[in-house]
Amino acid sequence: MSSAIRLTPLDNTIKHHAHDFHQIVIGLDGHADFEIEGLGGRIAALSGCIVPANHLHYYEGIGTNRQLIFDLPDDAPALTGSHRGHARLFDAPRFFALDAPLRVYLRFLVRELTQPQPAPGDLLAATFLGCLNARMPDNASQRSRRIDLAAIDAYIGQNIERRLSVTDLARHACLSAAHFSELFREQTGVTPYQYLLRQRLTAARQLLADSPLPLGEIAARTGFASQSALSHAFRRVYGHPPGHLRRRPSLAHETPSSPHHRLKLSSHG
Asked: How large is the average pLDDT for residues 66-93?
């Protein structure tokens, strides 16, 4: 079967599925959240994720967004024959950011897709996959490295009002997003996205308990896209809306009964 490449926005509602073909999603505009078999992260412009075939994944577009999506069957020309080495990209889910040369090729690819007679999708996909494959790190040589969690905590605290992504955290740790995510989960037992969400919710709870700020302002100060996004995450994790905290201050000291489970994006479903 041939590869398919499409330009599309993602709905601003949480959806999930699995499919029997591999997929690469790259942000062009706006943001989108993904969780792929427990590995979560946010895609911004010029970053993306790899979804191996038959991996359950949850996804949600954040506001106005546009994504470039590659659909790649196992037997696609871009993954077979002389290109069979590209298949290693799909050994596991991962997030990545595009470097300068790949950004140039991405712009060409997007323009090519809008032409009356674009180049064959398999040719475009094979070129992109080859370049991406060459850039993926050999994680084995860095397996023993540990992430400085205190430095990550400080970075999150200093930038809590920003919509930080896993790529931002990885860049701060001087690692690729894929390697950072793998090391982080091995070291902490949760994904970077889950950890970041926990930090945001902790900061939001503190502001709810200690300040008269309206919920919309608290959401903006703690990196949530909107008041409804904060309320939705808060209810999932703590079992009640944030407004209850002000009516019952004792709730400020509660902890989720199962934080590793309830902080997963998959609990949206």
From this structure: 92
